[in-house]
Design a protein that fits this description.
Length: 386
């Protein structure tokens, strides 16, 4: 079924397998998520009971090949992220933290033994992971991290705090990045380790149907086998962040598309001055502008996905997608909320919920300012971060 916002037949650019995957994930979101999201959002609950079904659909670490993972393409991964975020940003964030961050860290930088031990369990949803990079005093500049790992004989001892860590309170393992005498290193930390604790950050005005936490590491002792051997610098966590940022490029357009569809339906049914609101020129202009930006954002996401599958995607290109699509998506959701009038503040309708969520999405995995400076450096050759 062609989306209401598809004015240029974008579906014609997708393969039969890609369309089938989109329909499968969309049906899952419609059946298991949409009927309950208003309640989950209001109560600030993430529905852990749907994790096994997401695993059964092959969504956990779906872009990873081998070790029980689905091995889907970058475009297929993006399509799934778009459909999940059309339900709620918290739903896409779960898949992103589990797959693009925690599982990717092990897949990219772990030993064969670590991959075989953890990835099949994580792909099956029997083990949940989180990714500890951001800290209370180190957000946009991870190089300022204060968490340290010190060698003591055959062990590592970790001390520090991590903040805004998705899934921390339900995770079985945490990928923790820490300073060492040899530089930044990554560790697989079982959350049952003595000295590890996680508390939920709440109350929140955004991402309420999602879990964000603060992690404390108080003399957590690990064996050398828990270190990621391939992670030898700050470049390692950035490679994982780029996976997550790529998913956001698609996901933001899912939230925008859902808000647009709600506004289009509402204005077609709601009558004022004896006419549907959608019959007025100002309303039609808003709908057209929203649809155009969704189309452009989807084309951008698809282009980046094809480049990624071809091994030609450059890091700055992800910043183009993340900056543009988050910026446009939040505007679309705000405009959609306004078109619903007073009813737009009710949880019965999704646009304001999406807009609130996108305030977080726009911030994490690199703020607008960070991605602007990445692109500024690409255009001028001059780094302006310091």
């Amino acid at each position: 079924m062609t989306d209401l916002s598809d004015l240029i037949n974008i579906d014609s650019q997708l393969t039969a397998d890609e369309l089938e995957l989109r329909q499968t994930v969309r049906e899952f979101v419609d059946r298991r998520f949409r009927p309950n999201i208003a309640e989950w959002y209001e109560k600030a609950v993430f529905p852990t009971e749907i994790i096994p079904e997401m695993a059964e659909l092959g969504l956990l670490g779906m872009h990873i090949k081998g070790n029980g993972c689905a091995g889907r393409s970058a475009v297929e991964y993006g399509i799934a992220m778009q459909e999940l975020e059309a339900g709620d940003s918290g739903l896409r964030t779960f898949i992103s933290v589990q797959g693009s961050l925690a599982m990717s860290a092990i897949n990219k930088h772990g030993s064969d033994e670590q991959k075989a031990k953890y990835l099949p369990e994580m792909a099956a949803g029997r083990m949940i992971g989180c990714f500890g990079l951001t800290e209370p005093n180190a957000g946009s500049d991870p190089s300022g991290m204060e968490t340290v790992a010190t060698r003591e004989g055959d062990e590592w001892v970790l001390n520090g705090k991590k903040r805004w860590i998705g899934l921390g309170t339900i995770a079985d393992l945490a990928i923790i990045w820490a300073r060492t005498d040899e530089g930044v290193r990554g560790f697989i930390v079982p959350t049952k380790s003595q000295g590890f604790s996680a508390v939920a950050l709440e109350p929140k005005l955004s991402m309420r149907a999602s879990i964000q936490t603060e992690i404390t590491l108080d003399n957590v002792r690990l064996s050398e086998e828990q270190r990621l051997p391939g992670a030898t610098s700050l470049r390692a966590p950035f490679e994982c962040l780029n996976e997550a940022r790529y998913g956001i490029v698609w996901g933001a357009m899912g939230a925008a598309r859902d808000a647009f569809e709600v506004a289009a339906r509402y204005t077609g049914e709601r009558k004022q001055f004896d006419r549907p609101i959608s019959s007025f020129q100002l309303t039609q202009e808003k709908l057209v502008n929203m649809a155009l930006e969704i189309q452009k954002g989807q084309l951008l996401a698809l282009h980046l996905g094809r480049l990624k599958d071809a091994g030609k995607l450059e890091h700055h290109m992800i910043s183009v997608g993340k900056l543009n699509n988050c910026r446009e998506a939040i505007k679309i959701c705000r405009d959609a909320r306004a078109m619903l009038g007073g009813n737009g503040i009710l949880l019965e309708y999704s646009p304001l919920r999406h807009a609130n969520n996108l305030e977080s999405v726009r911030t994490y995995e690199g703020t607008d300012e960070v991605h602007t400076l990445i692109l500024g450096q690409k255009l001028t050759g001059i780094p302006a971060f310091r």
